[in-house]
Amino acid sequence: MTAEHDKSNSEQEQFSRRTMMAAAALAPVMLAATSTGASAQARATATLEYQPSGKVALVTGSSRGIGAAIAKRLARDGFKVTVNCVANRDLAASVVREIEAAGGAAIWEQADVSDPAAVRRLFAANDRAFGGVDVVVSNAGIMRLAPIKDMTDDDFDRMVAVNVKGSFNVLREASRRMRDRGRIITLSSSITQLRSPTYAAYAATKAAQEIYANILAKELEGRMISVNALAPGLVNTTLFTDGKTPEQIAGFAQRTPHKRLAEPADIANVVSTLCGEDGWWVSGETVFANGGIV
Ligand SMILES: NC(=O)c1ccc[n+]([C@@H]2O[C@H](COP(=O)([O-])OP(=O)(O)OC[C@H]3O[C@@H](n4cnc5c(N)ncnc54)[C@H](OP(=O)(O)O)[C@@H]3O)[C@@H](O)[C@H]2O)c1
């Protein structure tokens, strides 16, 4: 355990104690307010009870790229983390080792999100290790590009299976099993706004995430679970860079106001904010994190 981790745990404990004291102090106020005009105010004040970062986060597709950065960042924020891969077990294991070396707790589990039974096994493994889940990030995704006239059935079907059905499998399991007062984030993409040629099928699968988040946020009413889609722009991972020349990548970077691609950590920082103690009022939204390229 590092000193930094000890400090973070002790800060969390202090926060939990503070919020429990605030909740105890509020209880009589809330009882008195149930049939008065003050009830709305009491309900709003009751948000003080919210305890940030729950304790456990499950991040799909976290063996590399954006998901790995999210897993490491949430571990740094004090979450126990379940890491997931579909093929690269060594990479998933190395993300876990890195988290453990920094004083955190993590497990990894291979599961293809397009398979509902595998997703159930993933959540079950998380529950066995950590006893429940408070934050779920549906991040696993794939991208195949071609003009509509050239898109193959295989590529189209696999994108739908992983991005549309796979994310649905994860969100369904999350909404069945998550503890109240948690956060769900599903990864969309700013391509839903940029709408560049060759991206039609991929962008359509990402647009589904924005619909999922908005509707699921409403379906989970009363459980204090905030649900959002997060839509990065151009991020420096193999998903974006594969098949592009260094010159093409540099050209894309120059088109962004900040003159560079996002690094995965830039996106993980936004996830950390949404999952932090001050992020919970954002719900049902698509949060665009693209450095201003749209
Ligand atoms: N990079 C960008 O510019 C960008 C922009 C906007 C949105 N996004 C979205 O951000 C998310 C992450 O993208 P990324 O760039 O980090 O991708 P990436 O570097 O290609 O990593 C993809 C991750 O997803 C996992 N994965 C793929 N298929 C899976 C499946 N069927 N079941 C479980 N895990 C699976 C991979 O596991 P293995 O290592 O085992 O293959 C890997 O961990 C995606 O949803 C993507 O659409 C990316």
Broad shape: globular
How many DSSP E strands?
7
Assigned CATH superfamily of the largest domain: NAD(P)-binding Rossmann-like Domain
For the CA atoms, what is the radius of gyration? 20 Å
Number of helices: 11
In the CATH hierarchy, what is the architecture of the largest domain at level 2?
3-Layer(aba) Sandwich
Per the CATH scheme, the topology name of the largest domain is Rossmann fold
Question: What percent strand?
Answer: 5-15%
List of distinct ligands in this structure: NADP nicotinamide-adenine-dinucleotide phosphate
Total tally of structural domains: 2
Query: On the 0-100 scale, what is the average pLDDT?
Result: 86
Structural category: alpha/beta
Order of strands side by side in the largest beta sheet? 3-2-1-4-5-6-7
Pattern of helices and strands? HHEHEHEHEHEHHEHHHE
Query: Between the first and last Cα atoms, what is the distance in angstroms?
Result: 42 Å
Biggest β-sheet description: 7 strands, parallel
Name the poorly predicted regions: 1-54
Helix content bin: 40-55%
CATH class category of the largest domain? Alpha Beta
Describe the structure.
By secondary structure, the chain is of the alpha/beta class. The protein has two domains: about 1-50; about 55-290, Rossmann fold. The chain has helices at about 5-35, 40-45, 65-75, 90-100, 115-130, 155-175, 190-195, 200-220, 240, 245-255, 265-275; strands at about 55-60, 80-85, 105-110, 135-140, 185, 225-230, 285-290. The protein has a seven-stranded parallel beta sheet, sandwiched between helices. Strand 2, helix 4 and strand 3 form a beta-alpha-beta unit. Helix 1 runs antiparallel to helix 2, helix 3 runs parallel beside helix 4 and helix 5 (about 115-130) runs parallel beside helix 6 (about 155-175). The longest helix is centred in the N-terminal third of the chain and has 31 residues, at about 5-35. The radius of gyration is 20 Å and the shape is globular. The termini are far apart. Mean pLDDT is about 85; it is low at about 1-55. The structure holds NADP nicotinamide-adenine-dinucleotide phosphate. NADP nicotinamide-adenine-dinucleotide phosphate (NAP) binds near residues 85, 88, 187 and 232.
